Amino acid sequence: MRIMGLDVGSKTVGVALSDAFGWTAQGLETIRINEEEKVFGFEQIGKIIKEHEVSKIVVGMPKNMNGTIGPRAEASQEYAKQLEELFGLPVILWDERLTTMAAERVLLEADVSRKKRKKVIDKMAAAMILQGFLDSQK
To answer: What CA dihedral angle connects 107, 64, 80 and 11, to 10 degrees?
Structure first.
């Protein structure tokens, strides 16, 4: 059984999956969503859960640098709650402070163009969130 990692934003959700052993995380895709119109990509997430036999979901929770919870973290909490209700899987909220910036830095160091960075940043951030969780389980 695999673990899914999600980096939830207001316009996209980055998706990553663990390997079958739960050792490594790989970015899978970026799902377009629209928070304002209440389009959250749950149908696509459901397909991924089925196809890859996902047993647990890790959702990044972007706490403020001082550890407090702001509007984006509250949105992640709500998203996690809906995932749990829809799919009946355990959902873990994982502190993801700075993962998007770390992913951006890696891509910049690799000299990836801005256009290509935009396409992969969310799934890469999801992979970093998931890898942090996997590493904590060892």
So the answer is: -50
